[in-house]
Amino acid sequence: MNIKTEKLITGFYDQLQSGIKSGMRVKLNTASYRNFNDLVICGMGGSALPGDILKSWRFYLKKLNKNIVIHKNYRLPDSIKRTRRSLIICISYSGNTEETINAYQESIRHKYSVIAITSGGKLAQLAKKNKKPFILVPTGIPPRFALGYQLGAIIGLFAEANLISAKEKNSILKSAREIKYSAIKKLSLSASKKISDRIPVIYASEANKASAYLFKINFNENTKIPAFINFFPELNHNEFNSFAVLSKKQKHFIKNLIVIVLKDKKDIPEIVRRIRVTELFIKRSGVKLLEVKLDQASIFEKTFYCLILSQWISIFLAQKYGVNPLPTDLIERFKKELNK
Predict the structure, then answer these.
(1) Cα separation of 250 and 229, whole Å?
(2) Phi, psi (5° rounding) for residue 68?
(3) Same structural domain for residues 151 and 65?
(4) C-alpha closest to that of 238 among 246, 228, 250, 230
(5) CA distance 172 to 16
(6) Rounded-to-10 torsion of CA 13, 18, 19, 21
(7) 43: closest CA among 87, 103, 100?
(8) How many CA atoms lie less than 13 Å away from 290 in the CB half-sphere?
(9) What gap in Å lies between CA 119 and CA 117, rounded to an integer?
(10) CA-CA distances (angstroms) from residue 330 to 98, 266, 334, 335, 336?
(11) Which CATH number fits the domain that encloses residue 314?
């Protein structure tokens, strides 16, 4: 692992702290920016991760008792059009993400309260032109590795608006500051050897949805392999049935898959029981199983643990496969083809 990649991982706390400071410099002085019912966070790929994470934390941030909608598409979700009391946050690290720019322009056209988080590009230009608040984050790194800046910007924004308390903000920072990088790195190397040459299928509770997605996005973009996610209890009503014949008529699938289960003792008892029984059947099918135990005390610690663990596992696998984890060449070629 080269020094640049390692610093992108271990610099998470510094990023988060910097992002919070940037967010707190934006003053939401008007009533429309403070008194909202729906919080809509628009973003794609790595720039959508802050929204996914914030939504997974919403029950642990007492004042942020809002309906949070994550929008990964063009325009704006139909669900918010019945009310004008929505705050839109558009996140595009590059500032040039087509879908997010479209959503921002729709927000302006419909006169919603809107904030941009970006490192520049067209999104920053639009914010300046329309005299709307925006938060600038440092440029020059892959969006998925800029999560600390972007997540921190949202935390700082709402801390300044008194929608995230000082105690909650400090708890988030403490969780990031105390990440045990060396221990996680060692565990990641071991896990990467178990996953090697298999397609990861990640299962988690709905409460840990954002953490599961961190694994998927890092496998996809860093390791350049397919990876799939599903969630309890829904997966027990469809996908689970695919393990029925793997040990009989479809043995060739067994060696191609590994199921990664995010196991959280604080999930509700019904989900804990479902996970336990599901694992029994997966083991009987012959498919390889890897447990990721989420024993951390807080939701913040669990999220950051999964972030760092998934980054390192995916990068160790990239090294094994002989690929550079940082560029996403196919995505860039796709964008160029779209613009022809």
Answers:
(1) 21
(2) -100, 120
(3) yes
(4) 230
(5) 9
(6) 130
(7) 100
(8) 21
(9) 7
(10) 17, 39, 6, 9, 10
(11) 3.40.50.10490
What is the tens place of the pLDDT at every residue in 259-312? 999 999 999 999 999 999 999 999 999 999 999 999 999 999 999 999 999 999
pLDDT in tens, 147-185: 999 999 999 999 999 999 999 999 999 999 999 999 999
Task: Return the number of other C-beta atoms located less than 10 Å from residue 330's C-beta.
Answer: 10
Closest residue by Cα to residue 125 from 152, 140, 105: 105
Say if residue 243 is in the same domain as residue 259: yes
Q: Identify whether residues 65 and 191 lie together within a single domain.
A: no
Dihedral, CA of residue 217, residue 218, residue 219 and residue 222, to nearest 10: 120
Query: Same domain, yes or no, for 189 and 258?
Result: yes
Dist. CA 301–CA 211, nearest whole Å = 11
Cα separation, 335 vs 130, whole angstroms? 26
